[in-house]
UniProtKB/TrEMBL annotation:
Protein name, UniProt field: DUF2256 domain-containing protein
PANTHER family: DUF2256 DOMAIN-CONTAINING PROTEIN, GSL3115 PROTEIN
InterPro entries assigned to the protein according to its UniProt record, in alphabetical order: UCP037205
Pfam families listed in its UniProt record: DUF2256 (PF10013)
Length: 45
């Protein structure tokens, strides 16, 4: 994902809050496993 503008990053929709969230560098290895946008949403499932 190096050199990609923010607007072109992959996004997903959080099933809890229904908000879109974008790819982050720290999620690089686990992007396929990421479901929730935040810890708060993950805890409130």
């Amino acid at each position: 994902m190096q050199g990609v503008k923010k607007q072109h990053l992959p996004t997903k929709i959080c099933p809890i809050c229904s908000r879109p969230f974008s790819w982050r560098k720290k999620w690089e290895r686990d992007w396929d496993k990421i479901v929730y946008c935040s810890e708060k949403c993950r805890r409130n499932k």
